[in-house]
Every structure is written in C-alpha cells, then in structure tokens.
C-alpha cells in the first residue's frame, strides 16, 4: 500500500463586492472547513485555503474514483487543465505583493519525493506550475527527513513554528510528502497605541475574564448586518501588503453560533457590499493562538473519504497512491503593532465623540484576507478563555 503524506501549516479604498470564480471556490471551501473545525469551547485559527491548495495540487493525478469527489468538495472545475491554470494564477496573485515596510506575507510549498518511483511529469508540474521546491528524500531515514523538514519549516516561518515533525511522524512507505506553509507578519496601517491599552472584561463562553483591550478611534470600513445579527469592520495592514483583517461581531441579541451558521459566500459577499467608511470607537483584545489540527476526519465529514481510502492517485510508475495524513499547524499573534488573530456593542450605540462604538468584548469571528482578490487566508474565532 502506498501513501502520500503532506502537511499544510495565515488612502482607504473600497473594493468590489463581486467575487471571482476562484475566490468563490476558496471562500466556499474555507467556510465549509471552518464549520467542521468550529468549537465554541476552544479558540481556533486555521488556513483552509492552504489545505485546499495542497489537495488541489494532486487533482491532475486523480483517477475516476477520486476526481469527482475532489471536484465537488474542493469546488474545482471538471477540466483538470483549467483547474491547474486557476491554481497557478491564484498562487502567483497570492504572492504578487509579499513585502511592504516591516510586513511579510508568503505561501511556500516544498515536495520531498522518492525519485525512483515517481512518474517523470509529477515533479516538473509541482515545480513549474505550483512553484514548489523539489527535493529527494529517503523516508526510511525518518530522523533525517524530520530534521530536514523542521529546518525548512523553521526557516520558512521565520522561526514561528519549530519542531513541527518528530521522526515517528515520517512514514517509511511514503512516496511523496508535500509541505505548504503560510507566513504572515503584518503591521497595522494605523497602529494601536500601547499607552491606551487597558484591562477590560471579555465575556467568554466559559465565563468573564479580564483581557488586554486595545483602543483607538479610526476611520474604517464598517458594515451593519442586522438581518444576520452581526456587524463587521475591516482593519487594513501596512500599505502595500494588500492585506486586511475583517472582524465579524455578533450583536448583543445574537451569538457567534448564528454567525458561523450563516457564514458562506452569500454572507461574505453581503459584508463586502455593505462595508463603507465610518469613523468608529474601536476596542479589541490582544490575543495569541497556536493551533494544531488533524484535518483528515474533518475532510471526511465534508465528503472526501475516497481521497484517503481509494488508491487512485497516478503519481507512481507501477502503483497508485492515496492521501495518508493531513496536518496543519497555525500560529497567530494580534497586538498593537499588528498581526504575526463590558460595553454592549450595538450599531446604535454612540461613543463619547459622537461616533459608533465597535467594542469587541465577546466571542467574534475574524478573517485575514488579500484585499484585491478577497481570498481568505486565515479564518478563526476567539470565544474561550484559555490559560
């Protein structure tokens, strides 16, 4: 039995609300996957687009048993050449603006493979179409492979993720291992002042606890969505990064569960349509999250069981393969500088200077995205007090 193993490790301008074909695809998968991962009792930050991107790289090699499932669950076109072109264009656009000032954003991929068994067209496609680094590995030398992977991940994430893999995590019957890493270290366009940060009560699902709350008054893109029981703001990262964070806050009479239930392409488009410039009194907590997930069961729940059970990936000269394990490690830190993710908040509330309050003092959902394409890079929620 052959396995494939990969690890998937996130002047104000109003942007169009209309989503492109590929952004609709990534948004649909992101929302589907997030709903599977959502747990109000545990804070979550994930990059579904990283998992979707990694799986899509195998689509050109999928046989008749697996390809229809991948097409449906990953929202891919039936034409594999069209899917490859879309993915190539997406990766190029994603990395088009990667550095500005002190900010960095990048998505990197690396393939380790057994040279003797891999079909000759596989490595060139990963390298030329998907921009992945290619290297040969002897998976029987588990300690060496783990050390090389950890070294690459550590460098790729600028030290944010260390000791990602243990020797026992390396399967000796691997034919190919795909790593996909998303790195974000972004400064706010208008930073919060550390002098204004103060301790305030946050209403977690498991009780009220004090948090460090950041404050500022700023002109932001603001959306009021009473029909979905929520409101949203978009906070821009440093000019030139093409990145922003969208915070979706349930109204007092609603809940995060309702927002998660409604989150999909339609609500995402509606948020984009209603975002307009508004000066608000903004308060939001500082937070740090590190999340590890085993994505296999979540993907099976979404209908991708065949991908893990059918030997239907045509990567090898003699045998066919299937996906073995999928894991993701995500780290996010949000503070006054930027992101390395008991006042009631209602739209009619008015701050001291006559501006609406946007006080993020209860469970909320957040997105980090590319503004020009509106592709969601990270999605998460902050709802539970974790010591």
From TrEMBL:
Gene Ontology CC terms, in alphabetical order: extracellular space
Family: Belongs to the serpin family.
Limits of the Serpin domain: 31-385
Listed name of the protein: Serpin domain-containing protein
InterPro entries given in the database record: Serpin_CS, Serpin_dom, Serpin_fam, Serpin_sf, Serpin_sf_1, Serpin_sf_2
Native organism taxonomy: Eukaryota, Metazoa, Ecdysozoa, Arthropoda, Hexapoda
UniProtKB keywords: Protease inhibitor, Serine protease inhibitor
Recorded GO MF terms: serine-type endopeptidase inhibitor activity
Record flagged with keyword Protein biosynthesis: no
Protein's UniProt keywords contain Repeat: no
């Amino acid at each position: 039995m052959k396995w494939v193993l990969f690890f998937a490790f996130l002047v104000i301008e109003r942007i169009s609300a209309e989503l492109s074909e590929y952004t609709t695809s990534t948004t649909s998968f992101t929302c589907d996957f997030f709903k599977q991962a959502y747990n109000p009792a545990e804070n979550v930050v994930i990059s579904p687009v990283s998992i979707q991107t990694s799986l899509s790289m195998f689509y050109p090699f999928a046989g008749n048993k697996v390809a229809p499932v991948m097409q449906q669950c990953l929202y891919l076109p039936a034409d594999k050449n069209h899917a490859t072109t879309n993915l190539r264009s997406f990766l190029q656009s994603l990395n088009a603006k990667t550095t500005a000032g002190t900010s960095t954003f990048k998505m990197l991929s690396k393939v380790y493979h057994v040279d003797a068994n891999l079909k000759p067209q596989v490595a060139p496609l990963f390298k030329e179409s998907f921009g992945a680094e290619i290297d040969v590995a002897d998976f029987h030398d588990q300690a060496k492979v783990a050390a090389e992977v950890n070294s690459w991940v550590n460098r790729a994430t600028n030290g944010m993720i260390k000791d990602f893999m243990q020797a026992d995590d390396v399967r000796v019957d691997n034919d190919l291992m795909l790593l996909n890493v998303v790195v974000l270290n972004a400064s706010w366009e208008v930073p919060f002042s550390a002098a204004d940060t103060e301790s305030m009560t946050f209403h977690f699902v498991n009780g009220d606890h004090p948090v460090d709350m950041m404050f500022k008054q700023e002109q932001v893109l603001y959306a009021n969505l009473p029909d979905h029981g929520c409101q949203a703001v978009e906070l821009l990262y440093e000019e030139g990064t093409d990145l922003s964070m969208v915070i979706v806050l349930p109204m007092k009479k609603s809940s995060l569960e309702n927002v998660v239930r409604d989150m999909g392409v339609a609500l995402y488009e509606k948020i984009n349509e209603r975002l307009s410039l508004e000066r608000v009194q903004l308060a939001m907590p500082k937070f740090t999250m590190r999340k590890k997930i085993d994505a296999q069961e979540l993907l099976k729940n979404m209908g991708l069981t065949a991908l893990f059970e059918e030997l239907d990936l045509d990567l090898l000269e003699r045998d066919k393969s299937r996906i073995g394990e999928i894991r993701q490690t995500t780290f996010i830190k949000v503070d006054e500088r930027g992101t390395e993710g008991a006042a009631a908040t209602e739209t009619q509330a008015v701050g001291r200077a006559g501006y609406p309050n946007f006080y993020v003092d209860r469970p909320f959902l957040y997105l980090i995205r590319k503004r020009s394409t509106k592709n969601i890079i990270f999605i998460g929620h902050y709802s539970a007090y974790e010591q």
